[in-house]
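Hey, resending since the last one bounced:
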Amino acid sequence: MSRAALDQVFSVPFRHLRSTNFTGDEVVSHGRPNGLARFVGDEKNEMLKFLASISQTADQPSVSSLDDAATEAVSVLQWPLVLFGPSGTGKTWLAMTLLTMISELVDQPAGRESQKPLYMTALDFDRRFRSAIETDSVEDLRKRFVESPGLVIDDVHRLVSKPATQTELTLILDRMYEKNRPIIITMDASPQECDGLVGQLVSRMLGGLCLPVNPPGPAARFEIIRDLASINKLNLTDDAVQLLVDQLNVTVPKLDHFFAQAKVTLLADEEQNPNRPIDAAKLTQLFKKSDAEVDQLSKLIVKLVAAEFHLKPSELKSNSRKQTIVLARGVAVYLNRMLLGSSFLKIGTYFGNRDHSTIMHAFRKIETIISKPDDNDSNSVKMTIEKLKQQLTEHFASQINFI
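The structure tokens again:
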């Protein structure tokens, strides 16, 4: 990994792991998630860099400097803060970490110094709200939230079929906002893309700060894999780490699952060769696939690409020269080559017995498209390929045959 790439990396220590400053009916475990005690980000999560700056502010040893630093660091936040992204990207840990840091930086009003911020899942909030209705204690429930030093509501997308609960959450957000209480919400998609949420709740969330939390990019994965290798006591060479970065474009839990499965095999190799680190050649054996497995994965690539472009798999293998079909076919060829390493001859056989030179041309065309900087069409293709690579590599990682 080049120095320039590593310079893109930043990290946010999970500060709440060192405290028990949360209360709630379902407080998440204070054990280290997947063995890691920090969130590692790179250009894929560029917008989260300010969390790292707040973390550095919270770690300043000089108490006298905290007031100005806290004001400056927290001033960029707008409540509610919405962290959205796929499962396994670290949204919950980031939310709890940020609220912990803010509570350390900002003095609490007199009489509330001993109060703890709240963590609650959206479904637990729903249960609490329904129970409050039955016991005629809704106002007491609202008071509990509004008077808390801060609130994390996890997985708000799970309220899509509960409009009354959404309306109640909107009211609580309004009251907390009026009192400048920090509110952090997590969900699996941005508010405007989450079908089933009432307009008022979406409006309140969009009025705050909405930040995507993406799976780690290559530079972050390099650092994460090195950390997980160390945690699992595996001595990997840099080229072995880079191989895993290239092969495992997945979230941290999936990376952790890989090490949990692979370490028995890899540790056995270390015992036989105690003075030789595990290199890329050894790891390559883990990713070898039979011809039957390659054919199965090729079918999966065609199926996912066709679905993404709203086509039938058979259309990608047809002789059609429609622009959409040609582009989709090129993407499928590109993914076959990049993810499976198949020869152009073999890919051509799979796509209707096309000549290998035709397949090579399709591959090069996609390479040219995605290499264009600041081009709308190019960016759209890049995003589509990145999305498909994410889905496919997660599937491929779960299909590894350990020796």
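The beta strands are 10-13, 38-41, 81-84, 118-121, 151-154, 183-187, 209-212.

Sorry for the duplicate.
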